[in-house]
Each structure stands twice: as structure tokens, then as C-alpha cells.
Design goal:
Number of strands of chain A: 1
Strand order of the largest sheet of chain B: 6-2-3-4-18-17-16-10-14
Oligomer: heterodimer
Number of helices of chain A: 0
Structural class of chain A: mainly beta
Largest sheet of chain B: 9 strands, antiparallel
Radius of gyration of chain B: 20 Å
Chain lengths: 14, 257
């Protein structure tokens, strides 16, 4: 099972 | 005053075709060095970063940096009406509320003028961190499009696994599974048809098929595409555009639960 990650941590978005 | 002229409309058509399904609206950030656009989807899974360098234009002038908030669908529809070989001049006054577009035919016997209303787009430019990638795969862009399309008939995730021996794209769905392996080209007459795999560390990452399919529709921009993968960083898919700049797509991987 996988879940979709997002870009927030990569771009430092909280 | 901002003014940018491209000699052939075709390149702008291709660029807009490649981003307008992913980006509904965005800010064209115009400065002395060129035009850039960044846009994330609402779920922050993917990001489009476009760069059009000033030297890629036949004529370029930008007295002060401006943001042009644009509906990409509207811009795409208007630019589509230009002939492929028409010259296109984009222009905007410093505090203007429209983007002007002028199309000139090669014979200079037809001139079309359009204006698109600018809009407020709430999006700031992100400083995209320089990532360390474990793997860089360069392959024909048509092949990437074919692979993503073929696997999209089976599953909604594609696992990209890369070693020095090759790159494997695999998927599993309710109806079955499939996998495609590309080997590094041993001898290549045509650079652009080559598969080149650079591996620091073998890697396996899983991505949503639908985004890969969207990205791969940019094949018209370049015969080659590069896929850059690294642990803990988004996939970066790049279509370079010779002296003009690039279209890059970033995609967050799927994570094991």
C-alpha cells in the first residue's frame, strides 16, 4: 500500500 | 514596458500545449533575464517550472520586472490561432491590465492583434532547492510517452526502478500487471534516440501514472527527455528547449504506508 506524497516538505511549505 | 518577440509561433504553441492541462492559471514572471512560470496543482503533488530565457527571443525588452497573471487556457486558445511560422510579439505596459499579442505572417501581409485580460493569481515563486539525484535517465521523449500511456491502461502507479543495467517501468492493477525495461544503448548513431542511464545509487520510486502521462505530452518540445530521481526528492522530468530554456515537471513520489 502506498500513499501519495506531496511537494510541501521539499519546498519548505508548511 | 515589456515586449518579447518570438520568430515562430510554433514554439509557443508547443510550450502552452505542454502546460495548459496541468496549469489553469499562473503568473508569467517577466524580468530582464526572461520569462518564468511556476505553478503547482492544488494538491501540491506536482509542479510545472517553465523558463524562457531572454536570449531565446528575437527581441526582448523588460524595463522593470512584472507579473502577468494569465489564464493559460485563454492564452493557449489565442496562440493556437497564429500560423506556425507567424512571428508573435507579447507586450504589456508597466501597470497595464492586459497582455497584448501581435501575430505577423512571414509575408508581413497579415497582422492580428489580441489582448488578454490579466488576472490576480495568488501564487508566489518558490526557490526550488538544488537536489542531489541518484539517477539520471535520458531517453527519447516519444518512448517515454509510449511507456506511460501503455502502462496507464493497467495501473494508477508506476514503479520506476533503475540500476546500471537498465530502467524498469512497472505497474500493477486490478486486471493484471506489466513491466517494460529499457537498456542503455550500446552504440548509437543518433544521440537523440539514445537511452543513457547514469547511476550513482540504484533507486526504486513509485509515481502516480496520470501525472507521468500528462508530463509526457510535452514530447513535441524535444526528442529527448531526462528523468532525474533521488531519495527523498521529487522526480524531475525535463524537456530542454535549445537556447530558449526548459519545461520542468516535479512530481512527489508515492510513499509506502
Amino acid at each position: 500500500k502506498t500513499k501519495q506524497g506531496n511537494l510541501n516538505s521539499f519546498f519548505g511549505i508548511k | 514596458m515589456f515586449e518579447a518577440r518570438v520568430a515562430q509561433a510554433e514554439i509557443l504553441k508547443k510550450i502552452l500545449d505542454s502546460v495548459r492541462e496541468l496549469v489553469e492559471q499562473g503568473n508569467l514572471d517577466c524580468s530582464g533575464t526572461g520569462i518564468s512560470l511556476q505553478a503547482m496543482d492544488s494538491s501540491h503533488v506536482s509542479l510545472v517550472a517553465l523558463l524562457l530565457k531572454s536570449e531565446g527571443f528575437e527581441r526582448y525588452r523588460c524595463d522593470r520586472s512584472i507579473n502577468l497573471g494569465i489564464n493559460m487556457q485563454s492564452l493557449g486558445k489565442i496562440v493556437k490561432t497564429a500560423g506556425n511560422h507567424d512571428a508573435i510579439t507579447l507586450s504589456s505596459e508597466d501597470k497595464g491590465d492586459v497582455l497584448g499579442l501581435m501575430f505577423e505572417s512571414t509575408e508581413q501581409d497579415k497582422v492580428s492583434n489580441y489582448e488578454i485580460k490579466l488576472m490576480d493569481v495568488d501564487a508566489e515563486q518558490l526557490a526550488i532547492p538544488v537536489a542531489e539525484y541518484s539517477v539520471c535517465v535520458r531517453m527519447p521523449s516519444a518512448e517515454f510517452a509510449r511507456i506511460t500511456r501503455d502502462l496507464s491502461t493497467i495501473g494508477d502507479s508506476v514503479l520506476i526502478s533503475c540500476t546500471k543495467d537498465g530502467v524498469q517501468f512497472s505497474t500493477t492493477g486490478d486486471t493484471g500487471s506489466g513491466s517494460i525495461v529499457l537498456r542503455q544503448s550500446s552504440s548509437v548513431d543518433d544521440e537523440k534516440k539514445a537511452v543513457v542511464i547514469e547511476v550513482q545509487e540504484p533507486i526504486s520510486l513509485s509515481f502516480a501514472t496520470k501525472f507521468l502521462v500528462q508530463f509526457s505530452k510535452s514530447a513535441a518540445l524535444n526528442e529527448s527527455v531526462t528523468l532525474n530521481l533521488g531519495d527523498g526528492v521529487p522526480l524531475m522530468v525535463e524537456y530542454p528547449m535549445k537556447e530558449m530554456g526548459y519545461v520542468r515537471f516535479y512530481l512527489a513520489p508515492k510513499l509506502s504506508n
